[in-house]
Amino acid sequence: MVLFGLTASLFWAFCAVFYCFFLKNDTFFQLRRLWLWLSMAGGIWWASQTMTPDAHALPLVQLEPVFKMDEALSSDSKPDWYQIACMVYAIGVLLAGFRLLRGLWKLYRMIKKGRWTRLDEHIVLVEVQNLEHPVSFFRFILTPPDFSPERDAAIFAHERAHIIGKHSWEVLLLEVMLVVLWLHPFIYWFRGEIRILHEYLADRAVLQTHSRGQYGRLLLKQSGHFPLALQFYQSPLHLRLNMLGQAETASVNRWKYVVILPLIAIFTGLGSEFRAPLPLVTTQLDQLPQFPGGTQALFQYLNTAIKYPELAQKQGIEGMVVVRFVVLSNGRLTQIGTRGADNSTLQAEAIRVVKKMPEWIPGTLSGRAVAAEVMLPIKFKLQ
Fold first, then answer.
1. 168 CB-contact burial (10 Å; exposed 0-12 / middle 13-18 / buried 19+)
2. Rounded distance, CA 231 to CA 225, Å?
3. CATH fold of 56-76+277-381, please?
4. Domains of the chain: which residue ranges?
5. Long-range pairs for 212-221 at CB < 8 Å and ≥24 separation?
6. What pLDDT score does 280 carry?
7. Beta strands in 130-253 (DSSP E)
């Protein structure tokens, strides 16, 4: 998970720097919106690719199983920091999920209790008491009691543009991503940039029937705060006002959105270094990779380093965990993962111990050190 986050961060940082320097001041709002979504999707895809071992290109070394019997529980056992980190992450997901569900529940209650006026097949006005400013959510426009689509035509046009543009779907998807990736700072940046683009697009729709000056003065009057349940609809007012006064970007500047594509291809190509450390071979090795000191030293290390997880002992959990990892040509271990045993505590313990191993002696072929994939079965068994 850490490798996934770091790899996605590297991709997103590249995209964010390019966006801030070359695209952020453009008035190509739809292109910028598409760029941000593709950047997010590209980062997740690239991170998932770098985490996938390129096993078919590596020789496979199958080691003998190592048995780890349970030991008496001791009161001075050290904390399992991996499990603690997982618990912190899970708590964050629960809190972020609760925040999202709480906001959606408030919206649902406001819509349910409000007085509906169906304008057409796309839009329903919902009169809500104690609401300061209108706001849209899918096909609903929540309004204060004194709102009139005719008198407040500019505001109505703005919220209608949100509905026609289906911005609520993107807002909801961003909030769901925030629940899962709440630790990742770039998710908050992407969310902020896409939200302000939604406002730019809605403002542009208003300017088709209203002057810039008239609409700008209206925005200044709408600078209050929305209720907590609608907080993800707020937007920086000064950015919208600045964009209203900005001239349209010349069409020739669209070349930037095309030039970046080969740059991203080159950048993502560098990710192959994570997946396929060279040199790679598919033939039989002359010398297998080995733990310093040989097989007996490996078994001794594992028997000493592995601690049968207390939770697994208490719950009577046993199982075989197969740890797969790649020994690079310089002896370092990478692409460490597991299969087998469904219990996450057993898997976490096996991965922890392998990550703490010293550098191995790499395998050789024709006198050269090469990378190889290793499978190390570890059996956890209760006495």
1. middle
2. 8
3. 3.30.1150
4. 56-76+277-381
5. 212/244, 212/245, 214/154, 215/154, 215/244, 216/241, 216/244, 216/245, 218/154, 218/155, 219/244
6. 40
7. 135-137, 140-143
H/E stretch holding 115: strand 115-118
CB distance 308 to 24 below 8 Å: no
User: Would you mind telling me the total number of residues written for the chain in this entry?
Assistant: 383
Amino acid 235: pLDDT = 58
d(CA 177, CA 28): 25
- Cα angle: 210, vertex 213, 215; to 5 degrees: 50
Contact yes or no for 162/232 (Cβ under 8 A): no
**Is 373 in contact with 61 (CB distance < 8 Å)?**
yes
Q: What is the mean pLDDT of the chain?
A: 80
Q: What is the mean pLDDT of residues 362-380?
A: 86
Give per-residue pLDDT as tens, 38-85.
Answer: 889 888 887 776 655 444 445 555 555 554 445 443 334 445 666 788
DSSP code of residue 231: G
Residue indicated by tokens 């009169």:
127
Distance CA(286)–CA(72), nearest Å, equals: 43
Closest CA to 325 of 64, 62, 46: 62
Work out whether strand 140-143 and strand 135-137 pair parallel, antiparallel, or are unpaired: antiparallel
Q: Is the per-residue pLDDT at 263 higher than 70? A: no
Interatomic CA distance for residues 190 and 367, integer angstroms:
49
Cα–Cα distances in angstroms (integers) from residue 95 to residues 86, 180, 191, 196, 198, in the given order: 14, 11, 18, 25, 27
> What mean pLDDT comes out for the span 6-18?
85
